[in-house]
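Priority: low. Protein: Oxidoreductase AflY. Input follows.
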Amino acid sequence: MTATTENLITTKNPNGFALPGITLESRQVLHELLVDNHEKHHIFFNEKQFHNHIPHQLMAAAALGSSPDTLRKIYKLHSAYQRPQMPVKYDINESNLADYVLKEDAYSSYLAFFDKQFKSMTVREIFDKYATIEPIYDGLFGGLYHPLIHFCYGVEFDNKLVMAEGLAMAAIQQQDPGFRVVEIFEMENLQLESKSIPEILDAIRNDQEIQRAVPYSEPMKFKTLGNNDTATKKLLKRTSHWHVAADAQDIDAKFKELFQTVVDLYAASQRHGKPYQLDFFLMHLLTSILFVYVLLPHLSLENQAKVVKVHFVKAAQWFVTRGSPKIDRSVVYAHKSTAPHTENPWFAVWNMSVENMDLHVVKVIRSLSKADELFAQDGDDYYVKAAQMTVETTIVDDPVKHDVWGRNPIGFDEAWK
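Result:
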């Protein structure tokens, strides 16, 4: 596919986050690498359905001003372990679209179908027609939100190839254990008393039936929780106290409450006097929330409310599996940065993030940058300190060999001993 200025990515999405200064050459190189990945690589790089993150890191790094050489370096490092794209196996069309969901060998077939369909469709048309199909909707929020993240990278940067990859991934993503998306919507019929997210998380943390379902000693906590019918139903009912009306003002307020909560769960779940353990799973709550913000303007009010609600319920599920950590913002405020001094501390953070070859660091920094833009009061350094914690904790020579993210469930006292 030949690159022209018309089909290069745009970084002008007001709900995304990008710095000025991305060059035409960087945009051209990014386009070439995204096309190469689209044509050559499967969406999962192993049989465990670990996700191909190449477009994520490339687009995030480009948005913060990465040079063409840095983009090529990222691609070379992370393309080395990808699985090759499979030949198209099934002739997928409108009438049999749902027949191949959850089949991993159907990825290239869904991709070919969506590539063709998306060319003349708007994001809203794509979402309404395809993303709301029940198994695909579940898949969109499954797998630690990866299909949602991937699809919405395409939305943010107006790239239909990446959108098609994301929705094809959602179609074949193994379903998370526990409740389905439709059950979340059905619980609204109970019309339970309205509560805030902090109130709900406190109630979950103090619910012994839910907590007993995922003891510290259990290695597969997410699966174990999902397979515990009693605990899952209690969790679903707890989260049903948080209502999102199909009203622009309520959606905005509830989204902001959710965004600030996932920042806290990621950054303020640390403990004073202990080395940071930036949780791999809670980190994805943060990286994905930016893409909810990116997606919302393209949806009807009804679908906006549903997307915000589903993200919260899935976040609550992950919250439980990480030991229901307590939030203490003072740990973040107490951080003493070791980053190089710049007049604006964000400058050092952005530079360190694009130089970091880890797949997730630059994504975290973009989400925190957007949070700072939306929520920080004048003089409040909470979000930049969370960003400094991230870039200063994740420095390693080879992120492929050395995982920089914490895997201990940090809500448990045992994780800090």
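The radius of gyration is 21 Å. The chain has two domains: 24-172, 177-417.
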